[in-house]
Amino acid sequence: MQDALQFTPQIAPSSIANVLWLVPAVPMVAAGIIALLKQPRRRLASSLAIGSLGFSLLVALTAFAHVLAGWMSGHAVRETVNRTWVQVGSTNVELGWVLDPLSAVMLVMVTFVGLLIFIYSTGYMAHDENFTRFFCFLSLFAGAMLGVVIANSLLLLFMCWELVGLTSYLLIGFWYQKPSAAAAAKKAFLTTRIGDIFFLLGIVWLFAQTNTLLFYNNGAGSMEPLALGGLLAAPAALGLSAATAIALLIFAGAAGKSGQLPLHVWLPDAMEGPTPVSALIHAATMVAAGVYLIARVYPLMEAGRSATMIGTSSTTALTVVTWVGASTAVFAALIAVAQNDIKRILAYSTLSQLGYMMAGLGLGGVAVGMFHLITHAFFKALLFMGAGSVIHGCHEEQDIRKMGGLRKEMPVTFLTYAAGMLALAGFVPFAGFWSKDAILDAAVWWHPSKGPFYLLVFGALLTAFYMTRQVSYVFFGKWRGHGHAHESARVMTTPLTILAFFTATLGFLGTPAWPWFRNFLGDHPAPFELAGFSEPGILALMLTSTGVAVVGLLLGWWLYGNKSPKADERDVLEKAMPPIWRALRDRLYVDEFYGATVIAFYAWWAKVADWLDRRVWGGIVSFVTSFFGLWATFNRFLDTYWVDGTFDKGCEELSVGGGLVARVQSGRVQTYLRLLAVGVVVLAVILIWSSAR
Amino acid sequence: MTIVFWILAVMTVSGGLAAVLLKNTVHCALAVTGAFAGLALLFLQLDAQFAGFAQILVYIGAVAILVVFAILLTRGSETPESGVFSRTWLVGLCIAAGVFAVMAWAILNSASALPHESATPDVSVMQIGNALMGRYVLPLEIVALLLTAAMIGAVIVAMHEKGDVK
Amino acid sequence: MTPLAGYLLVAALVFAIGLAGALTRRNAILVLIGIELMLNAANLNLIAFWRYGPHPEALTGMMFAVFSIAVAAAEAAVGLGLVISIYRHARTTDLDEMNRMKG
After folding, report:
1. Do A680 and B99 touch (CB under 8 A)?
2. pTM for this structure?
3. Using a CB-CB distance cutoff of 8 angstroms, which residues of chain B are in contact with residue C63?
4. Is B66 in the same domain as B133?
5. Which of A44, A156, A183, B14 has its CB surrounded by the most CB atoms within 10 Å?
C-alpha cells in the first residue's frame, strides 16, 4: 500500500469552499418560497424545487472537481470555513463547513439521486392535491440533508440532523388522513429521538472534554490528534476511555437514524409515506446519514489505533459497530423473506444493507462502508422508484401476491428493476457486487473474529433469495390483480433508466484492480493494475460471493419462479415450516416485544406514580393539613379572631393544595408554571449554597 | 439613591401590585399601563433614552391597547362570582415570595461587589442606529421576521374558523 | 446600598409581583399581564447592568433590552390571540376551568 498523502496545512479556503454553504441553503430557501405558494401553483413549486436542487448539484460537482483536481495533483484537499456563532465569556461555539473527499462524494450523490427523485415525484404525485406542500417538504429535506453532509461542526450537524428528522416525520405522515401513516410518522419520530438523546449526550460530553465541536480546525478540532489524545487519556466508567464512551453514544444516534438493531422498528412502518419519499429518505439519503456520521467521526471511532492497522486490530467502538451492523444485516434479511408488501420487502432489505454499511465501516474503514453507501443509494433508489412505478401501474396495489406477469406490461420498469435487483443481490458486474465484495473482503481479513464474515455471507444468500422471490411474484407468472396494469409515464421511467445505468456501471470505481474510490477517500493515488485481481484470496472471495448469490437466486427461482399462487394461498415456505414462517412474517415480534416491555413499563410506572401521588404524597399532605388543623383549633382558644381569619383559611388552602400535589399532572397551566418557579428557586438555592461553602 | 428613583420605584411597584390585585379587569389593564410607564421612566433615568421610548411606544402604545381589546373581546371585564383568584392562590403567592426572597438575597449579598457609580454614558441615537444597522443587523432582521411571523400567527390563531367567514 | 442594587431590587420585586399575578389570577389575560411584568423586570435588569457595567459604550445590554421588548410584543400578540381563540372555543378565560391539557 502506498503512503498516504499528507493533508497540506490550510492557507485559505478556495473560493468553492467559501460558497459551499449555498448547497444546502438554496434548497432551503426554495422550500421557504414554496411554502408561501398556493396549492394550485404546481408547476412553479416543482420547478423551484428541481431548479434549486439542480443548482446544488452544479455547485456540488464543482466542489467535487476541485477536490479531484487536488487529489490528482498529489495533495489531499481538506478545506474548512469556520465562523464563531455564539461567544459566551471565553467559550466560543463555532459552526462551519468542510470540503474534503468524503463530503464531496456524498454531496454529489445526494444532489444527483435527489434530483432524479424530485423529477420522478412530479409524475408520481401528479394527482395529489397537496402537490406544492410535498415539494416544500422535499426541498426542506434536501437542504437539511446537505447541511448534515457539509457540516464541520457536530453542533451544526446535529441541527441539520434534527431538521432531517422533522422533515422525515412530515413526509412519512404526508397522507396524514390515513391513521396508519400518522402513527408511522409518530413512531419514526419517537424511535429516532431515543437515539438522538444519546447522540446529544455524546455531543455535550465531547464539548466538555475538548471545548470544541468542530471536526477540523487546523489542529484544534475535535477529530484531530491533539483532542483525540486527550479523550483517550480521560477515563470514563467501566474501564472505557472517554473517547470510546463518546463514540458509542454517537453511534447510538447513528443507529437510530440508520435503523440498526434494536432501533430499527420505525423504518418498515415509514413505508406508509409516498413512494418517492421512501426512495429519497428511507433508502438513499436520510438513513445513510447515520452511516455518514460514523464515517465523519471515524477518527474518534478508531482512536487508539493507527490507520495502517485496519483489519488487524479493532477498537471497542468499532467492534460494537461491526457486530451491530452484521446482526442487523442478517436479522432484517430474514424478515424480508416473509413479507408480502412490495415496499416492506425493500424496507427490510434497506435495513439489511445499512447493516452491511455499518459492518463495512467497522471492518474496513471509511472507504469500504461509504462505497457501499453510494452504490446502495443508486440501486435502492432505483428499486424503490421501480416499486412506485409498479404500484402506480397496478392501481395502488402493494401486495406482491396480487401482481404477476408485469414484465410484458411494464418492460422498462422490469428491465431497470432487474438491474437494481441484480445489484442488490450482488451479481457481477453490477455496482452492488463490488461494494459488497469489498465489505466481505474486509471481513475475511478481520482478525478479532470471523463471525461477521459468516453472518454477512449468510445475509448475501438471503438477499439474493428474497429479491428473486419478489421479482418472480411481481414480474413473472400470471397476472393476478384487478384491472389492467400499465407502464408509467416517461417522467417516471427516465430517472429509472438513468439510475439503472449507474447501477450497472458505478461499481467499476471500486474494483480490486482499480480501487479508485478507496484511494480517493483514503487519499492514496490510484493506479490501474490488473494484478489487483491476483492478490491472494481476492478471486476466491469473488467466486464465493458470486456462488452465494447464484445459489440464492436458484433457490428462489426453484421455489417461486413462474408459479402463480393465488393471493390467499399459503406461501411455499409456510407450508414447509409454518412456525418459523409466521415468526418471520410477524417481524420476529420485535414490535410486540417493545409493546410488552418498554411501553408496558411506562404504563406500569405511570400506575406507580399515580399510586404514590394518591397514597404517599397525598397522605403526607393530609397529615400536614390535619396537623395545622389541630394547631389551629388549639390556637382558637388563645385568639379566636386572629386564628379564624388566617389559619383556617390557610388550612383550607393547604388541603386544596394537597389535592393539587396529589395530581401534579392537572392540566392546569398555572400548576406547571408554579412547578417551574419552584424549580428555579431550588436551583438558585443549591447554586448559592454550593458556592457559599 | 435619588428622590426621583424612589418616586418611580413606588409608582412602578404600586402599579404592578394594583394590576395583580384589582378585581375589575379593565382597572388591572390601566394599572399595568402605569407600571409600564414607571418602568419607561426608570429606563430614561438610567440614560437609556432609546429603550425608554421604545418601551413607551411598544408597551403603552401597543401592548396595553391589545390587552384592553382582548378584555373587551372576551367579556373579561365582568367580575366572575367565583372570585378573581384561583383556588390555590396561597400556594402561588408562597412560590412568588420564595422567588423574590432568593433574588433579593442574591442581590443584597452581592451588593458590595456591585459598582457604585460610573460615568454617564454618552449614547446618541446615531450610535444606536449605526449599531442596529451594523453589528446587530442580523438580529434586527431576525426580530423583524419574528414579528411578521407573530403577527400572521396571531391573526390566524384569532381568526374565525373557515366555515364562519364564508 | 448602591444605585445598581436599588434597581435590581425593584426589578426583583416587579418580577415577583408579575409571577404572583401569573400564578394566582384566574383570568388568562391577567396571567399574560403578569408575564409581561416579569419580562419588563428582566429588561430593567438588562438596562441597569448596562448602565453600571464596565462597557456602557458597547451598547450590548441596551440592545438586548430593545430586542427583548420587540420579542415581548410578538409574545403579547400571539398570547392574546390564543386567549381569544380559546375563549371562542370554550366561552371562558378562566384558567381553573381549562384543564384538558393532561394525559
Report:
1. yes
2. 0.71
3. 128, 131-132, 136, 139
4. no
5. A156
